[in-house]
Amino acid sequence: MELRYCALQALQAKETSTKVSLVSSLWSARDSLEINTDQVLEPKTQSIPGRPDLPELINARHMPKRSAFNSDGLAALVHAVCHIEFNAINLALDALWRYSGMPNAYYTEWLQVAFEESTHFELLRRFLESMNYSYGDFKAHDGLWDMCTKTSNDVTARMALVPRTLEARGLDATPIIQKKLKSAGTPLAVEAIRILDIILRDEVGHVAIGNHWFNWLCNQQGLDPFTHYNYLAIKHNAPKLRAPFNFEARRRAGFTDQELSALQAQPT
């Protein structure tokens, strides 16, 4: 088994259960997997990423607001996070197979991310089922994958704008969601908070991996990370970063004092 080839197969898997199973198998076999870092892979089909027929994907601007104070609203909120975690599996698998010529550690770390994202997805999927809902019952958007498409030819841009931009926004958003759930005060809301604690803990590590490889790539190319990040954000029209920020989590994820100071100057 060759890791990058198998990651591409998992990425193209359409059914969620198949994708999760393939990622779990790769994680279990991680110590015996071959890694061909030089091979340039090409998908056999255009179905990247593989995904189920549902949820229906709509423009992010058209997504309805969600309330945690009723069962439908809480389920919709949990479903939104579940969809983010499903996308995050695909993001990690794509980072793993797409870019050749990186050190072995790059590929093994992104396999770890893919596996942990799959466990998050399963936690949320089972939680939805305990509420008599399923993944796919609500509409969702595809904003995370759009940035993957934009950065498909540049691993430095991918590291800059997916883990340390889009996924880092999750570090900021999670405490806000948890506060909303705490206000609801129901046993289901308490369980959702517990799951989000697990996700936040792991996501700090995922963003840290993105930070590490972005800085490594900049060093290899003789680029200043702070300046080059700003260039890439403008070039690829990355979302504007706005307060509030989870500075403590961002610091643990490897953001520098210079970066955190720049965030403090951002408008609310």
Spell out the blueprint of helices and strands.
Blueprint: H1 3-12, H2 16-28, H3 71-98, H4 104-130, H5 143-150, H6 155-184, H7 187-221, H8 225-235, H9 247-252, H10 257-264
Provide structural commentary:
The protein is globular, with a radius of gyration of 18 Å. It has helices spanning 3-12, 16-28, 71-98, 104-130, 143-150, 155-184, 187-221, 225-235, 247-252, 257-264. The protein has one domain (3-32, 69-264): Ferritin (Up-down Bundle). The protein is mostly helical and 268 residues long. Helix content is 66%, strand content 0%. α1 (3-12) packs antiparallel against α2 (16-28), α3 (71-98) packs antiparallel against α6 and α5 runs antiparallel to α6.
Quick synopsis:
The chain is mainly α and 268 residues long.
Q: Give unreliable regions as ranges.
A: none
Shape: globular
Structural class: mainly alpha
Structural domain count:
1
Order of helices and strands: HHHHHHHHHH
Helix content: 55-70%
For the record, the CATH class is Mainly Alpha
